User: Fold these one by one.
Assistant:
Number 1:
Amino acid sequence: MELSCAMAGSAAAPPGPGPPAAAGAGLRDSEEYESLPSSVALGTHMVAGAVAGIMEHTIMYPVDSVKTRMQSLQPDPKAQYRGVYEALKKMVLTEGFWRPLRGIDVTMLGAGPAHALYFACYEKMKKSLSDIFQPGGNSHLANGIAGSVATLLHDAVMNPAEVVKQRLQMFNSPYTSVLGCVRTVQRTEGFGAFYRSYTTQLTMNVPFQAIHFITYELMQEHLNPHRQYHPQSHIVAGAVAGAVAAAATTPLDVCKTLLNTQENTALSSVKIRGHLSGMANAFSTVYQLGGLPGFFKGVQARVIYQMPSTAISWSVYEFFKYFLTKHALEKKSSS
């Protein structure tokens, strides 16, 4: 889930300079678009998050498949690519039209519940903790704690799906179905294999979300200073924020991919027997095999994947914020 913290963070973001988002968006001057109305049910936040999460992970999924392959430390000669377009073209021509989409089903199964759980936890904790730390106000400390706990839960749901997805994406993968992959991994490596990269995933998400959120807010200050609902600004700011955060955290993503896929050729070349575990071991292995450039394998594909994904996620979530706020106000005025 590389976006859920950032997306939910927008609901807790302090109002931008100028008057509250209002007239142009069809909201009252006394209401702020930046904060979802308290009357909105928790289930609504879950639906908004689930929709945004599924769209984020699936629309650009073929590029994600390329990214996984380009991060391979010891790629098969038939799976060496110079660019994203060449990789996609080669995959389709040599492995079939649907090959870049293998694993998308498990991604959707994981992304929906993971993002729904994130939003449920985030919104509930944010409100409860804000009432304690800053009654009647918006506590940044409460937002930070809520986001951190929500990320722990989100990644706990999403990590097994990531493991299965990336094993299905690899070149010459021995797995042909989600269920077959789950059964084989469980039988040969045990349940712990589904969480071997969990700490690395969390370590990656913390700086990713920090960079992503800060960049998005800085972009919004320039593109949308009055913080109104403005789709174009959300798309542009989201794309830029996603690109910057993705590029900066690529080294951690390479380590996560190695832990998830347990790339046999790579591990054998450095005489590692059994299964690689632990972030420190992953960093050491990546450096042994590829040096410093090894930590940025697949950075082009990661950025190309993340830009539209984050743009879509921000725009979908911001739309839900606007729509739900407007709907709540209309319902309130008619009663």
Number 2:
Amino acid sequence: MEASVGDILIVGAGIAGLTTSLGLHRLGIRSLVLESSDTLRETGFAFTTWNNAWKALDVLGIGDSLRQPHQQLQGMVVTSTISRQPPSERSLKSEGKLSEREIRCVRRKLLLEALVRELPIGTIRFSSNVVSVEESGYFKLVHLADGSILKTKIDGVNSVVAKWLGLKKPDFAGRSAIRGYSDFKCSHGLEPEFLEFLGKGVKSGFPPCDDQTVYWFFTWSTSSQDKELASPAEMKQFVLSKFNNLPDKVKAVLENTPLESIISSPLRYRHPWEVLWGNISKGNVCVAGDALHPMTPDLGQGACSALEDGIVLARCIAEALTKTPCRELDNDEFRRIEMGLNKFAKERRWRSFQLISTAYVVGFIHESKGKIMTFLRDKILPAFLTGVLIKRADFDCGELSILNATASV
């Protein structure tokens, strides 16, 4: 099938892809987003958005619309399920290094819909499964499963693109997660706090989204002896069996969760040294979001960093296209695009390394079973570990302006 031309092609309508597309739109640049599903993907239910994410959302102009339905979390309370130590409490209301701290648990569906609402009609092409990428002079040819071919000047984001760049598939972290979403239809009775429970090799968290809904997660280190959890009913029973001593209000969150709102998945991550030394970009192709830095969820920074990626990538592309683009990609424009994507890679490489590494170490400490590590985690390190989460959120991705193109940390 004859190739059609699109200047900027984004593979995947996830958070990073849609953020990049909207960032480009705000700068007056059109893009085409290819999504393999026939609708927006809502897997994961919700996620914690720290102040670095709100900076990116405000830059996009959609921050206030997402604040309204999501309550701000005032503190973090970490409880050991095996020691008699009182819970470690940390306020989340104080000023951060770069801005006021703001943490909310945002529903994924509402975030994706907010991003899409601001995009021009026709920006997203659903049911477009990319199977391969090949070079054609300065252009890239993107092959779809239906046999069509798209010819593009700039291509990026998705895992298919990561494969073309030579990045390995994310590795299994030796842990799995069960996630759920509970809607009480009335008040759940929890305070606006991020509740976290640690002990016996497992970890769980219960951040409320608003007065009626709570997102929860449960992670554990898996072994070959573990029974496979084939159904949501088994997943729910498994989580309840691990936490007999939870407060009644928290246990009610698990019991109230419908089976259709429970999912399970293995946790995967990219080795941090691959981010440092691997190909994040090559020519006019790059990766962002989970395709760049898949990480364990222990920092709550997966979605936040994807938003950062989108802002930085849109800015770097816009800088490369400041001159009037030609329909036929010449050497000068190709080099400017290449330099723009290299700049993106340079800005995001160390940040991605930090997040992946820190998340892995925090997860290891949280789920360790040894007596020494348990003692350190429960009595010495609680305030330090919470401080690590806060510190990694103190990041400013910068503005959507080619005149102000630096991020701060």
